[in-house]
Fold:
Amino acid sequence: MARRFDRDRLVIASHNEGKVEEIAALLARFTVGAVSAGALGLPEPEETGDSFEANAVLKATAAASASGLPALADDSGLVVPALGGAPGIYSARWAGPAKDFRLAMARVQRELQDRDRSAFFVAVLTLAWPAGGIEWFRGEVAGHLVWPPRGELGFGYDPMFVPEGGAQTFGEMDPAEKHQISHRARAFAKLAEACFVDR
Structure:
C-alpha cells in the first residue's frame, strides 16, 4: 500500500518552468505548499537512468535529500515508435543546451520524414521522502504528430502532438483541458488516489 502524504509542503524537483506550472496546477486542489527545486537553488542532478522511472526516482531522491522536504519529480518525454522509441528519455537533450524545443521538434520531423506518425507521451511521477521511501506512478497518452507545429500554449513537443480523438495539438489546447487528459495528469491521478486522498 502506498504511503500517504501527510506534510504541508513539498518540493517540485524540476527546473523546467512548464513542468513546475503544470504540477503546481495539479496540486492546487490539495492543501500543499509547493516550491520548485530551482527556487530553492538546488542543483539539477545528471539524468543517468535508463528509463523514465529511474530518472524520476533519481531526481526526487536528490531533491528530498538536499531540501529535507518530500519531493515530487517528473520524468517525461515523447516516444515515437517509428524512431525506435526516440527521443524517449532523451527528449530534453534533443532540445540542446539552450533547451530550444523548436530544434527538437525539427529534428523529430527530419528523422521521421514520411514514416508512421504515431506517438505517445509518457510521464512518471515519483514522490520521495527525505528519510527514505518512494512511490512512483506512470501515465501515458497516445496520439500522432503534425507538422508544422501549431499553438503557443504548453511546452516542449506539445505544438506537434495531437492526442488520440482530438483535433488540436497540446500547444493549441487550453491548459485546463490538457490537464484533464495529459500523460502527467494521468500519472498524477494515480498519485493523488494513492497518496493524497483522505488527507
In short: Residues 9-196 form a domain with the Maf protein fold (CATH 3.90.950.10). The beta strands are 9-12, 33-36, 71-79, 118-128, 134-145, 161-163. The helical segments are 17-27, 52-67, 101-112, 175-181, 183-196. The chain has one domain: 9-196.
